[in-house]
Each structure stands twice: as C-alpha cells, then as structure tokens.
Amino acid sequence: MPTNEKRPAGNGADSTTTGCTQYIAGLHRRRAASWRTEPLHSGHRDPWRYDDPEPTERMVDGYRDAVEHLGILGLTAAPRIPEMRVLWRRGGDDQRLVRMLAERWEVAA
User: Fold this and answer.
1) DSSP labels for 71-105?
2) Could you tell me which residues come within 8 angstroms of residue 85 by beta carbon, excluding any fewer than 6 positions away?
3) Which residue of 35, 68, 81, 94 could cross-link 87, Cys pair, CB 3.0 to 4.6 Å?
4) Residue 84: which of 50, 60, 49 has the closest Cα?
C-alpha cells in the first residue's frame, strides 16, 4: 500500500492475486496428477464425472422431499433440471411442484 494512504492494511483493498495464483496452481497439480494415472474405463484419466448419469428414482424422490420441506420453511429449492424432468413426467402433484419451481426461478425445463 502506498505511504500516502491513510487506511489501515487489511481493509479489503488488498490484492487477491495470491488467492488466485494458489487456485490456479491447484488446478495445475490436479491436471499433472491425472496424467500420472491409468485411464479409467470411460477413457478419462480424471475421476471427475464428465457426463452426469440420469437421476435414479431415489434421487428424484429425495429432491421432491427436499423441495417440499424447503417450501414448508418458506424457501425455494434450487432447480435441478434432470430431476424436474422426471417429476414432470410423473404428473399429478409432482408436476404441480415442478411448475411452481419453474415459475419461481423462471426456468424452462
């Protein structure tokens, strides 16, 4: 900080470059580690999922229960499009729940 500044150090005006460089260095380490491993059956070396699988019925039921629980508390759940599509296909109360979520978030599933 320049000497003519009257603000104390650590007031939020400090540079965040250190945090960014640490994050980028971590990404480089992850990439380097992925090249040291054998390819997985998917052909990728990194175990991170590239293509999310279709949600299971249990995942969809859990999402529905979470949406209903948050609704009771006066909160709106985050939209999860794959789960919302399965709920829509079920029809009935599940479809009404998806419609409510889509309207609140202005999402087109």
Assistant:
1) HHTT--PPP-HHHHHHHHHH-HHHHHHHHHHHHHH
2) 109
3) 94
4) 60
The tokens of 6 are what? 């009257």
**Per-position DSSP letters for 6-25, written without gaps between them:** -SPTTSS-S--HHHHHHHHH
Instruction: State whether the Cα torsion 36-53-56-94 is positive or negative.
Output: positive
Name the burial class of residue 105, with classes exposed (0-12), middle (13-18) and buried (19+) by CB atoms within 10 angstroms of its CB: middle
Task: Work out the burial of residue 40: count CB atoms within 10 Å of its CB; fewer than 13 is exposed, 13-18 middle, 19 or more buried.
Answer: exposed
Q: Is the dihedral of CA 22, 23, 27, 33 positive or negative?
A: positive
Q: How far apart are CA 94 and CA 92, in angstroms?
A: 5
Whole-model pTM: value is: 0.56
Residue type, 17: T
